[in-house]
Amino acid sequence: MKARLLDLTVSFDGKQRLTVELDGDFRDTFDQLHEGDVEITVKKYRKKRSLEANAYCWTLIGKIAEKKHITKTEVYRNAIREIGGVSEIVSIKQSAVKRLQEQWSRNGIGWQIQDIGSKIPGWTNVILYYGSSSYDTAQMSDLIDSLVQDAKALGIETRDPADIESMLKEYNKYNSKE
After folding, report:
1. What's the predicted TM-score (pTM) here?
2. Regions of the chain where pLDDT drops below 50
3. Among 43, 44, 60, 105, which is most buried by a count of CB atoms within 10 Å?
4. Which residues contact 113 (CB under 8 A, 6 or more apart)?
């Protein structure tokens, strides 16, 4: 449910009171839960994604995987590594690489790391790739464009560029930061 944080006060004993304004009707839930402890999670609001661009992306991935006789996961992960603006390079202790990889990959199948080494003993540099669930419209467009090019090179029929542009506009409408 979309909400806005309005106020935070701290009492003399250190307890905090948060005032929240809700867009939806919360009365029934409040009636059911107000007499006991509850668990609260607060995170930045994002509009729901456009499923059409995401569905087309996975349709292309499936067709490419079938044609190349590899898994959809391989196609998806390779495509992510090929586009720009969806990664960060960090330097970490060599002994921490495995743990970082385990934690990072919990975000989804596109979230991957690549160890690229370092000249500093005991340290390494890794590229952290973000999965498409975090992409803005330009990044999603780059991913789909890359997949379209791969599909065309394999003789796979793709949608008209105007259709793809329309899908991405819809994606932008649902993914705009508000």
Report:
1. 0.65
2. 178
3. 60
4. 97, 100, 101, 104, 105, 126, 127, 128, 129
